[in-house]
Amino acid sequence: MGHREQAPDTSVSGAVYPPEPEPDMDPPAALVIEALKHILESEFFRTSTRGRQFLTYVVQYRLERHPDPLKERMIGAALFHRPLDYVTGDDSVVRAQAREVRRRLEKYYLAYPTGHELRIDLPTGSYTPEFRLEAHQTELLPATSTSTSLALPAPTSDSVAPAAPAQSQPRPRSYRFGLLSGVAITLLVLTAGFALTHFSRLRIAQPALTQFWLPALSSSKPVLVCLPKPVFYRPSVDLYKRSEKFPGEFGHEVYRMNHRPHLDVKEPITWGDIVEYWEYGVGRGDVLAAVHISNFLGRQNKDNEVRIGDGYNAQDLRNSPAIVIGAYSNPSSIDLTKDLHYYFADDNKGMRIQEQGVQGHSWPNAQTPPGVDYGLVARLLDSDTGQFVVIVAGMTGSGSDAAADLVTNPRSFDAALSKLPKGWSQKNLEIVVSTQVSNQVAGPPKVVAVYPW
Predict the structure, then answer these.
(1) How far apart are CA 391 and CA 433, in angstroms?
(2) SS3 of 360, please?
(3) Is the separation of the CB atoms in 243 and 250 below 8 Å?
(4) Could you give the CA distance from residue 257 to residue 238 in angstroms, rounded to a whole number?
(5) What residue segments make up the domains of the chain, in order of their start?
(6) What is the pLDDT of residues 217-244, one digit of tens each?
(7) What is the DSSP letter of 88?
(8) DSSP H helix total and E strand total for the chain
(9) Residue 140 scores a pLDDT above 90
(10) Could you give the angle at the alpha carbon of 230 between the alpha carbons of 450 and 283, nearest 5°?
């Protein structure tokens, strides 16, 4: 399948775009879709959400035969929620993703060099993919060629070379497409037509959890995962030694770190007997939440930075999308939620997640059974920081852990979809969850209230 030489179009931002293929030069759409499916299911794309979205989008655009070449600004608006008039020179998100897709495609074809009926490439300097039928390379060789270095298949019946005699070697399995029956080919074409009809859904019908995180995933900046560090106190060394049952019992730090002093509950101590330790104090449930979130972002190939306590400040939150973990241990969470529909209250009625209004619900309440904890997820598209922020916080660490499970576990999030309103992915969103805690381990999150705006 030869290509006719045409002068490249250099009219857009100096980028060189290869000529759009003529309609009769395109391979069957069914082969393109099948090749794309294998690529996306490979280990090189399976965990790359943005890579899958990018490659799917540009392949779809080519198959739909748009008259204009794909441009950087067009992709930025469609996939990365950039304004249609954004300055591409200041935002390299599309170029960076294209380089990443080219790198992954290269690894894919190096890992699987044979067995392809059709190859999909993304040429450097272009966003328009190229489709190449590998079997048609036989047209470039004489029929009598005995070369085996390229592992070329025997020519098919519609090739320019003479048909092979009956006793010739069988063709490789990967090139038996030409031997399919007419019925099988018809079914394949019908399948391609159905797939093309619904192909655009691959671009917009992203997994629900991906839609939740899309503003963070599409940002060119790493996501900050902000852990609280409350004040932490320990008994002084002197208090440990005063309580020893035998000389030297608490003489080593490793023993003091793992044992309580022997003190009677009524024994008086002074403020000097208590010492603040700056290097300790991160809550177990908050740490679990941070691990869930950081691992989830890593699986999406999204850079993230875990910051603890004073490791981040208001300026950091203004510069990058962020996930703020913890409630009463984290002043940022309290400040960011104080004017929201659901917020963390702390007054003469106790600590709780409170709904605004005189008749507002609260959690926990008088009907809360023993062992139940609550958490709050707040998804703010444009928070007071000017950035995308997700707050993951619980009444205790178990509530934070359950809230994190909701927004990092596809199964948990899909179970909550029935509670979410239509168009939720384009809105700010608050979700209150409950969890049954057993042996200090949070159970699956259950949605008890939702508020979009």
Answers:
(1) 13
(2) coil
(3) yes
(4) 14
(5) 9-136+186-205, 212-230+282-452, 233-276
(6) 988 889 999 998 888 999 999 999 999 9
(7) G
(8) 14, 17
(9) no
(10) 65
